[in-house]
Each structure stands twice: as structure tokens, then as C-alpha cells.
Amino acid sequence: RKLMEFKGIGDYSAEILSPHPGFPLDVWSVMIFWKLLGIRKDRSTREMIPIVKKWAEKKLGQWRGLAFTYILNDLENLKQKFNVDVSGTIADYIKEKKETKKKYSK
Questions:
Q1: In the predicted model, is pLDDT for residue 51 greater than 90?
Q2: Are 63 and 20 in contact, with CB atoms under 8 Å apart?
Q3: Most CB within 10 Å of its CB: which of 15, 44, 61, 96?
């Protein structure tokens, strides 16, 4: 919370920069998590952020930061395994970035 005293640092950035990782969600990543984790969407995307955060705290506890990192890094495999369509989210951007990296690393 100390980080949020700096101008321009909000909840999302503070959770990313914290040495004790949380579950940093924004409007893009929250879409991935409610779809992948089967959380019913009954509000706007922005209103879903605290709901998904609370779910992560309850279900994942102290491991939520690690789970967040794992899920985003293995998203392609997880969406196939659980047959979840996360198109139209940051998942498309992550996939494109990985493909570009592979293309230029050869």
C-alpha cells in the first residue's frame, strides 16, 4: 500500500511491483480469469475485478501470485485443456508476442 502513495501507482501496479505478489487484475486479465476459472459474470468487467480477486484470495490464498503467473504463462495449454475461449482478451496479445519471439529467435 505504500507504493500507492506515489502519483500514478494504483492497485494494479502496486500488486505487480510488490515483493509479496498478489493477484493483479485489470479489465483485460480479469476476463481471462473469470472465463478460465468458471466464475459467473453478472456485472461489468470493471466490477468483476474485486469479485475475481476475492475468489483468488479465498481459493488460492498465499499462492495466488504464483497461480496468476502460472496461468498467464501457460494460458495456451490451459485454454485447450479446459476448452475455454478467451479470445478478445489479452490472451490474444500474449499469444502473438510469443509467436513473434519464436519467429525471431530462430
A1: yes
A2: no
A3: 15
Specify the residue for cell string 525471431: 104
DSSP secondary structure, the chain, as one string: -GGGGSTT--HHHHHHHSSS------HHHHHHHHHHHT----S-HHHHHHHHHHHHHHHHGGGHHHHHHHHHHTHHHHHHHTT---TTSHHHHHHHHHHHHHHHH-
The pTM for the full model equals 0.72
Closest CA relative to residue 80, chosen from 38, 40, 36: 36
Tell me phi and psi for residue 23, to 5 degrees: -130, 75
Residue 61, Ramachandran bin (φ over 0: left; ψ between -120 and 50: alpha; else beta): left
Please determine, for residue 39, whether its predicted confidence score (pLDDT) is greater than 90. Answer: no
Nearest-angstrom CA–CA distance, 73 and 37? 15
